[in-house]
Amino acid sequence: MNLKISLIMATLNRKIEVKKMLNSLSKQTYKNFEVIIVDQNEDNFLEEIIDSFNDLDIKHIRIKKKGLSLARNIGLKYINGEIVGFPDDDCQYQADTLEGVIKFFYDNKEVGAVTGTVIRNINEKKGNKVVFVDKYSIWKKGISFTMFFRKSVIDQIGQFDEVLGVGSGTPFGSGEETDYMLRVIERKIPFCNTNRILVYHPDEQWDNPDIYKKIYSYTKGRIYVLKKHKYSPLYILGSRCFSIVKLLRYFYDGKKRKRYYYEFKGKL
Questions:
Q1: CA 184 – CA 180 distance, rounded (Å)
Q2: How far apart are the first and last CA of the chain?
Q3: What are the tens digits of pLDDT across the range 116-145?
Q4: Which residue ranges form the domains of the chain, and what is each CATH number?
């Protein structure tokens, strides 16, 4: 039960968040892990912070090109662990998150991949629910910063699709993690979701002036993935209609109306 975990964390333009994440890693009850930081910042933006965590096994990889999928693919070249995770640079683990990951894979030897549950309170209590995910439930159960894979699965699936994701240079600002997980499911590799593994992530900042651009690009990515994985035209139509329903429901709420307008627009 002493499997090594490799954590690939791509980062750009965040200092305080990275420090908080590394601080949560330094408190882990399970110690056999490495952190592969794929740093897309200029100069020595994170140097001082990373150097202050000399208790952690950190590989600091600097790259000049931007892109989340690109950064993760570069990080995959440096992994030494039997389990691989992809934390965001603004999330945090509970003290026993990685211990929970190892215990899950130990108890479920047939499972090749697992996603945990997002929490908004770092002290939230874990549960004991485990469900298998399929190509439909993955859209709600497959949150990228909670996903962990056996290295043997990573070897089968390969790299992330660099057409997708933040910084890709394409209109498709999301979907890279869902695409990856769908490729696992399509190979009929057992894939679970559980609330035994909890990962904190802050709420979306809806007053961010770039939020609508983000919503648009994220939904563009969703439609791209739906088409790539040959979901039925009826299912895709249903996704678009759902946004219309929300748009009409919140028509007299200015902020929500704008949000769902850009969501619908991105699905066209």
A1: 7
A2: 48
A3: 999 999 999 999 999 999 999 999 999 999
A4: 5-200 (3.90.550.10), 211-266 (no CATH)
